[in-house]
Design a protein that fits this description.
22% of the residues lie in helices and 28% in strands. With 176 residues, it is α+β, with helices and mostly antiparallel strands. The chain has one domain: ph1033 like fold (Roll). A hairpin with a 2-residue loop joins β10 and β11. The longest helix is centred in the last third of the chain and has 10 residues.
């Protein structure tokens, strides 16, 4: 059974992607690393078949930016020799997603288009649930359907099945 995860993107990155014309393009890869600014997908437990939903928090609203199904995770230092030429071009195209110390490349078939206006409705935000080995948790700092602090989504976190389904529907039906 596949899992679904959110991966936090900063507002600075989102503004750059918007200004540079990445909006509307389908995600094909993501980068991970060993630092808080670019966390590891491998360490988070992401595996082939899982779904990644990049998110941002902007003006107390959480937005789902797109979706990518994981086909594989490669060490960054080997990506040039392991990727097919077409996929290597994608690696170069999505280089703005690289920040800090890159250690891994998550590749997949074209996912949902990158959008910056898909706001998570307040009701969903209040019941959004993440799961881990320690149990399930909802987001803290949610008041009146607004996310006051983004600390609860900064990183890569696995969504509970019901929340994953609601996020999937929100981004336009990317399968689980």
């Amino acid at each position: 059974m596949s899992n679904s995860y959110t991966a936090f993107w900063t507002n600075d990155l989102c503004r750059y992607l918007e200004r540079s014309g990445y909006g509307g393009q389908r995600l094909t890869l993501l980068f991970g690393g060993s630092h808080q600014s670019l966390p590891s997908f491998v360490r988070a437990g992401v595996r082939p078949g899982d779904w990644i939903y990049p998110v941002r928090v902007h003006r107390t609203r959480m937005c789902v930016l797109g979706a990518l199904e994981v086909a594989g995770i490669l060490p960054y230092e080997d990506a040039g020799s392991l990727l097919h030429d077409d996929d290597y071009v994608k690696l170069l195209h999505w280089r703005p997603l690289k920040a800090g110390c890159v250690g891994e490349v998550v590749i997949g078939p074209p996912g949902a288009s990158l959008r910056f206006d898909t706001v998570v409705p307040g009701g969903l935000l209040e019941r959004l649930t993440y799961t881990s080995r320690r149990g399930e948790r909802t987001l803290k700092h949610v008041e009146d359907g607004r996310l006051i602090h983004s600390v609860g989504v900064q990183g890569i976190y696995r969504l509970a099945a019901g929340s994953a389904e609601e996020i999937r529907r929100l981004v336009g039906g990317a399968p689980l």
